[in-house]
# Entry
Amino acid sequence: MKIDKEKLVELLVEKTSMERAEVEKQLDQLIDRILDAAHRGKALEIKEFGVFYFDEEGELKFDPSKELSTEISFKYAGMKPIELQPERDTAISIGDVKPEETETEETAEPADSDSESTEDEKKPAEDDTDDIFGIEETKEDTSDVFEAEDDEDFDFLSDAVKESETEMDIWDEVARQEEEEQRKKEEERKKVEAAKARVKPKKKKKSNAAIWAIAALLLLLVLAGLYFIFLDNDTVAEDPQQTATAEHAVPIPDELPVITDEDAEVAREIEMIPVEPEQVPEDEVSETEEVQETQPEAITQTALNEQETYGLMGMINDEANDGYSIVLHSFTSEDNAREAAAHLSEEGYRVLVTSRTVTEETMWRVSVGQFETLADAQQNLNRLPPPYNVQNFIHRIQIN
Amino acid sequence: MDTEFIYAFKEVLREQFVNKNSVEIEGLGTFDVKHYEQHQKRYDNGKVVMMPPADVVEFKSNIRISYEN
# Structure
């Protein structure tokens, strides 16, 4: 529905004790002041409403205040952006690494020990440059050419190389033993965890350090693989639990089917979250009564005098009706509202039953507490028992 | 312009916004309440979040000012 200036003036006259002419005059004054302030390059703030100003492009803008925004978006109060988890990509690591793994075991490792060590023996002194620099087999061709050209230049190296060679033979033996151990270990591992991600085949290396590095890498990767599989199982196992508990947490209304949602249009828009709980626990239904007038006998008049003006518990204080209240139920029928209110007040809450006209239908709101500010009301939300602590909204108290 | 009027003005507009009515004030502009569905949003740091739905008041005005002088 669109409210034009005419209608707005009517509503303002209704709200205030002023004459129509007076209201029109005031409204014009307000507009003038907003524009005047904006023209002077200032922003005019109406407290708890918003700020009017001209932006860089010279357009009149309005920023609603925090209070106004909260109140308008009351249905979604307290909802925050939720971070979405990216899907875990387990398929890639397993799929990519596994084919290579077979190569590692059958070809790479035996070749490492056998072919290279024999070659070492075949061409001891003449091809030393290979050994000392740890150049790989595949590069032999180039090194041969190299040698043909600069044979003499390398002679001074040969002595040192020979020394290191004897050492190499010993180390080769050690290395071979280690490799065998390694192979045994690997076979065992392969049997136990077929689906593990493993190290890529390393290029053949002669140096002992490289073998150690391979061993360490293998171990690390296997551990990492185990860890991830363990993690996966964990998360997979957890997920159904979470959804299961979530299902339990959502109360299924089985009573009072007559009660409808406050705002049919809104309900369609926010199907995912039932803002207003529509059920009344069966065991707590009691006699209907005018809550604002009749209070539980336990609370005496002196108690009313002692209690604070605003609060969640206690008795309704008429002076506090200029504040905010937390709406827990909304009914189309007044009787149902009174019924729900009765058992809430039995539990010691300050209960208000008010009616509001929403989309041309009268809704009876049952709300608890009287709070001076929206922030106070929001702080008290977590004092409510489930499901009220999540299914509620705050409104400004308006006594009809 | 007295406080009673300002108070009533705020109250009336707030009520109309909550009831999803748009309010047109001649000589100033139009207030509209717009509903936004929940939607995914990507922050600059790469995080993807689900933004909650929201009702937002929007103000449009034909009034312009020129900064030329």
Summary: Chain B has a mean pLDDT of 86. The CA atoms of residues 24 and 63 of chain B lie 13 Å apart. Chain B touches chain A through 51 residues (CB under 8 Å).
